[in-house]
Write a sequence for this structure.
């Protein structure tokens, strides 16, 4: 059984600037993967709950430039969202920027509510962070469940997301997305090795972009079609 870690303890491994490595797996494999690393990680626990719920609202420009920048493989790109961490009762306005070296830079501020509208403070935070004014509005909402692990040995966190839904509809009930968050890529990670032994290899995927592509079929989505096919194959 995993030993627990509290939210305050986990803050010591925030990894706001990090290398993210993602894996797409069938949900049925999650118990086996968890069992294989049970001695190497602690698990986030809040009020005796280890399965957390996350609600997010994503924002984009009128012409969906954030989505299209990812689709067109732009090296520098951003995502902006409000995220409600349900069990902890905390809501943040978050900005994720990926640079041309593949490093993710995450900035966020706590906010009072989860409404669609952006406050003046929120808009100022966005302008200051991305260094330009943006006219953005809600593009899609999502909800999923997450298990979070923290390494006992390294500066490393692991998230396992499933029951991923967009605008109230579950995308694929057999889909799980594992994300390894590290200061720099380290393939000797216990989680990385556990997945490699099961022939599970890194796979680049954006929950936001997959959600947009599957819920808005008229969008440009050539780049994401094969990813959706891969998801369906792995979860069949």
């Amino acid at each position: 059984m995993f030993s627990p870690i509290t939210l305050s303890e986990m803050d010591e491994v925030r990894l706001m600037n990090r290398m993210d490595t993602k894996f797409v797996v069938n949900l049925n494999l999650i118990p086996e993967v968890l069992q294989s690393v049970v001695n190497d990680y602690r698990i986030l626990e809040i009020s005796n709950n280890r399965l957390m719920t996350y609600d997010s609202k994503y924002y984009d420009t009128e012409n969906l430039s954030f989505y299209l920048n990812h689709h067109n493989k732009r090296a520098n790109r951003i995502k902006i969202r409000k995220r409600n961490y349900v069990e902890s009762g905390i809501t943040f306005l978050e900005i994720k920027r990926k640079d041309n070296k593949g490093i993710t830079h995450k900035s966020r501020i706590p906010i009072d509510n989860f409404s669609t509208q952006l406050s003046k403070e929120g808009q100022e935070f966005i302008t200051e962070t991305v260094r330009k004014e943006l006219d953005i509005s809600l593009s899609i909402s999502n909800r999923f469940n997450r298990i979070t692990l923290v390494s006992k040995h390294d500066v490393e966190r692991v998230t396992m997301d499933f029951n991923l839904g967009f605008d109230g509809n579950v995308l694929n009930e057999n889909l799980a997305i594992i994300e390894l968050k590290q200061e720099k890529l380290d393939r000797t990670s216990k989680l990385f090795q556990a997945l490699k032994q099961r022939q599970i290899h890194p796979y680049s995927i954006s929950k936001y972009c997959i959600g947009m592509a599957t819920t808005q079929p008229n969008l440009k989505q050539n780049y994401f079609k094969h990813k959706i096919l891969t998801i369906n194959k792995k979860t069949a």
